[in-house]
Amino acid sequence: MGGLCSSCFGSSAEESNLMPSPETRRKQQLEAAERRRIENESRGIKDPERVKRQQMRSEEIQRREEEAARTGGQPTLRWQQD
User: Fold this and answer.
1) CA end-to-end distance (rounded Å), the chain
2) Residues 23, 26, 30, 32, CA torsion sign
3) Quick check: pTM over 0.85?
4) Per residue, what are the HEC states of the chain?
5) How far out from the chain centre does Cα 60 lie?
6) What is the pLDDT of residue 68?
7) What's the CA gap between 14 and 33, in Å, rounded?
8) 68 contact partners, CB below 8 Å, separation of at least 6
9) CA–CA dist 51, 53 (Å, integer)
10) Are 48 and 42 in contact (CB under 8 A)?
11) Which of 7, 43, 44, 79 has the largest CB neighbor count within 10 A?
C-alpha cells in the first residue's frame, strides 16, 4: 500500500484557504439572493423607470382617494370663471 499520503485524508492548509469563512459565505449568499430578486422583478420589463413612475402615480391616487374618504367621501368642487 505504498503511494498513499497522509495529506490525502486530513484537511491541509491549502484546502482551508479555498473555503471562505461561514460569515463570508453567508454574506455572499445574501448578495446573490438580492441580485436574483432584483433580476426577477425586472424580468420582462423594457423600461423599469416607467414602471416605477406608474407605481408612484398609483400610490398617489390611492392616497388621495383615502384622504377624500376620510374627509366625508365627497370631493369639494369649485366653479371658477375666467
Assistant:
1) 105
2) positive
3) no
4) CCCCCHHHCCCCHHHHHHCCCHHHHHHHHHHHHHHHHHHHHHCCCCCHHHHHHHHHHHHHHHHHHHHHHHCCCCCCCCCCCC
5) 22
6) 81
7) 29
8) 74, 75
9) 5
10) yes
11) 7
Residue 79 identity: W
Is the four-CA dihedral 7, 13, 18, 21 of positive or negative sign? Answer: positive
Instruction: Identify the residue whose cell numbers are 492548509.
Output: 13
Task: Check: CB of residue 30 under 8 Å from CB of residue 37.
Answer: no
**Identity of residue 65:** E
pLDDT at 74: 62
Residue-level length of the chain: 82
Q: Convert the pLDDT of each residue in 30-66 to its tens digit.
A: 999 999 998 887 788 788 889 899 999 999 999 998 8
